[in-house]
Amino acid sequence: MKKITSFLKSFSPLTTFLIIIAIGITFIYGAIKYQKIISQKIISVKQESPFNYVKLEEAKVDEFYAKSKDVDNHLKLKDDQWQINDKLANQDAVKQIFSDLEKLDIAELVSQTDDGNKSVGTDDETAVSLTFSKEGKEVAKVLIGKSGASIDSFFIRNPKNKNTYLAYGALRRRIIVGATEFEKKEAVDTGPTTPIPLEGPPTDISL
User: Which parts pass through the membrane (predicted)?
Assistant: First the structure.
């Protein structure tokens, strides 16, 4: 500190003032640039997160498809009614899918390699591919992998990169069900109930 003070005293007051101003400007510029770099990194992480990628509203899509070797659920909006594999679907069950997307909680990044993704089921061959479309154009797509260690936890990946995340929510268990679970259940009319008469005279049980 003494050396810096002695160095500044060797200049005129005006020169010293200008040097201090220059140092201050350099410091401020460096701080702003550093903050910008940090902000860009944060934005980058947010953009690659599957949660932000699939944050959809029902109004933005008219079709979505859950497909794997064990799952084949094709839902499409027709005449303002959702249909599952060309059959009328339970509208509340479909709306719940969009609610699950909104509530999806991305916890942490767990894999960035092909081998790691395969071990948790988010590889292209074994994952459940969940694709959302609007007027025939793909809006969003995610790959759903295996269940996690706790209830309603599972692995999810954006197919645009190799980053697999651990997620929490009901989305996985709702989309891997059979197509019949999405179909609208019609109430069965069994007709009026007819009382069955007792045969024989009443039994006297008085003592």
Answer: 12-32
**Strand, helix or coil for residue 120:** coil
* pLDDT digits 0-9 by tens, 37-65: 444 433 344 445 565 555 677 778 899 99
Residue 162 belongs to some domain of the structure: yes
Q: Which two tokens stand for residue 163?
A: 């980053």
Q: Which tokens hold the place of 175?
A: 């989309």
Distance separating alpha carbons of residues 46 and 35, to the nearest angstrom? 17
> Are 128 and 66 a contacting pair, CB within 8 Å?
yes
Range of the domain at 172: 52-181
Q: Taking the model in full, what pTM does it have?
A: 0.64
In a domain, 118, yes or no: yes
pLDDT of residue 200: 54
Residue 19 covered by a domain: no
Domain count of the chain?
1
Give a yes or no: residue 26 inside a domain.
no
Task: Note whether 133 and 62 are within 8 A (CB).
Answer: yes
User: pLDDT tens, 85-114?
Assistant: 888 999 999 889 888 888 888 888 999 999
pLDDT at 46: 45
Residue 38 is predicted with a pLDDT of 40
Sheet of strand 105-111: strand arrangement? 87-88, 81-84, 72-78, 63-67, 128-134, 137-147, 153-157, 164-168, 105-111
Which pair of tokens denotes residue 52? 């932000």
